[in-house]
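Proteins fold reproducibly. Next comes a concrete instance:

***
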Amino acid sequence: MRSVLRCSLVAFAAGVCALQTCATLPPHALALAVAALVVGVAARTITWPARGRGVESALCVVACFVAGFGYAGWRAQLRLADALPSAWEGEDIRVVGVVDNLPANSERGVRFAFAVERVLTTKATVPARVSLAWFVRPHIGDGDALPAVRAGERWQLTVRLKRPHGNVNPGGFDLEAWLLQQGLRATGYVNGDAANARCDAFAGRARDYVQRAREHVRDRIGRALPDAPYAGVIVALAIGDQRAITEAQWTVFNRTGIGHLVSISGLHVTVFAAFAGGLAFALARRSAKFTSRWPARKAAAAVGMAAAAAYVALAGAEIPALRTLAMLMIAAVGLWLGRPGSAGIVWLWALAGVLLWDPWAPLTPGFWLSYGAVALLLYASVGRLHATRAAGYRQRVVRVLREGAHAQWVVTLGLAPLTLALFQQVSLIAPVANAVAIPAVTLIVVPLALTGIVIPYGGFFVLAHAALAPLMHGLEWLAALPDATWQQHAPPAWAVTAGCIGALWLLAPRGVPGRAIGALWLVPLFVARPVAVPEGAFRLTVLDVGQGLAAVVETRRYTLVYDAGPRFTDTADAGGRIVAPFLRASGLRRVDGLIVSHQDLDHAGGALSLIRATPVGWLASSLPADHPVVAAARDRDAVTACIAGQQWNWDGVRFTILHPTAVEYGDPYSKTNDRSCVLRIDGWHGSALIAGDIETKSEAALLRARREQLRADVLVVPHHGSRTSSTVAFIRAVAPAVAVISAGYRNRFGHPRPDIVARYTNNDVHVMRTDVEGAVAFTFDGTVPPAAISARAQRARYWLDAPVAEGPPRD
């Protein structure tokens, strides 16, 4: 009976996870789930002969898998049905709703989730929950300053929305999956309108009380630690809001492998619940009158569960915390009913319960790492013989240290395949860092921060920061070690599966035969590399960076990056968020050459982060000598200006700079766009031309001086398809088979212009757009025309929007 129950719970979870790999949703998903449940219940109620028990068990397991698959599909259909019609993208819509989460404030404005209650614009359709940005308008008077926005307030706003759309790149973050999981079915901004007004200072929904309490705690921490370097970490540990943690601090956490501690982890929830429950137990057992009605242990379980639920709500209810809360609730219910289950069955019920609540949890790394870590610790304790209780204090300390070291070994090794698959890196110093950080954060920093929440005295937050600061200094020192992490390519799915099997084999109890053979199953994680480019061929990948440009050129042994994409915010850019992860996932450990075409932020904005994240051999650009990107180059002797006529050869592939000339640098009237580095790439099987942001003046100059060198199979369209470029003469001289336009979805410039796109198609050129296709990769290996791979087509999922290539939004 227990084995069937366990298999059924695993099957339900597997069905939910399987649905999240589908490119399309199954029709009639709810009917499928109901039919599967009927079959499962019928299989359990029918009296089977002894020989039919296996059929009964198989039917139950299969029914639970199909039920999980159908249930997740039904939930997905409901969420996707709550959509913004394409006809209303970019239009002014008046809505009334409530600020539904903690607003994120910055110098540029404020971002927040908005729960829509009423749509005032006639015939407009708006999803129930959207993500909004309210930007500070430049050159405004003091009377027009951006109003303060607080959680739980009701506002009437005029907004412009667009459907969920994110950058899609190999190895990149899936924004559309995150928006789906968060229930945000449109994104947009608040348009300047005199009708924008606060309707109520507090809407009074149950959720609003929680969010307002979280905001109050965040404000108190801000007042107590106004200039503290790790105030954002204290906020994350107290209420789970990680948005104030800097990129540099995240780098430290990732390199030391303690990122799980920065979130409200299961360990924090467990310690808090144990403290509350222990205190309740100690008080209850002192009252005979109370314990005569309620057993002290049951009362302690109820108090601990209530405390954990309050803490998880205050912390934002992230997946690791929800997993712990579910396990605690199931264990408490088992204690109350007098049927406490094993740790394994509690884990399985918690897994099924979280997936029932949030079927999109498998789209988050925290789901796999949180449940995986607990499963590994349970697995590591099965079948082990433990020593009897040590008599002395020293022996008990040694035993605790030994068990802690063993747990760190189990989690580090067991999660290595998943960590490589998710992040393409594993911290080699994680056991050492966690051995110090876990007790310091869990037993000192977090209790002080929680005490500061309960007791309205900011000194507790100051003490928490004082305890955290030396720990951070030590972690920063560890993270700076050259071999702190192992970084590599993203292993294929079959290698990850083999690695998981190998890790479990290695961690099996003593006496299991051939444990050392498990190490062989880990080998594919490291040796199953992406297919190398052959000699004389090259691969060109135009990344999807939004409104900007970043392209990667690979030969057999060398890597060139042309531009690094735009800067998104003061702390985030495409170099660190898109280009570097793509290089890491592709197994490209260094950039042999970096070309920054010109100084516009949509091309150079990510270069600094890329240089910091990845070793760069040399830098060529049209940037001025005092530009920060030039100053950041590690080897100043390897910095040069792009000059027409420069050539080099890598693995039989010739690279040529066609523009600008030396004269352009001395022309004070020359635009930065017209000083863009124009790069031609010639392999044995084809050629490509990357034109930066050159405009008609530069195109004419190229036609006069280098017409014979313009012919190419693939053209990265100049200036994102604007009307200032792509003259008919230039298109005909290049005569590409394919033209790639790198542009942001519904960008404010209206790129690419419809007439420019028509100009290419009228000249028999196939046009591909990153805002429609995602990243576009071409392999010049003899295929005619060059084989093109669209990231959106390759990574098809049911939640990825299929935008229509149409004209600019109306302003």
The mean pLDDT is 87. The first strand starts at residue 92 and ends at 99.
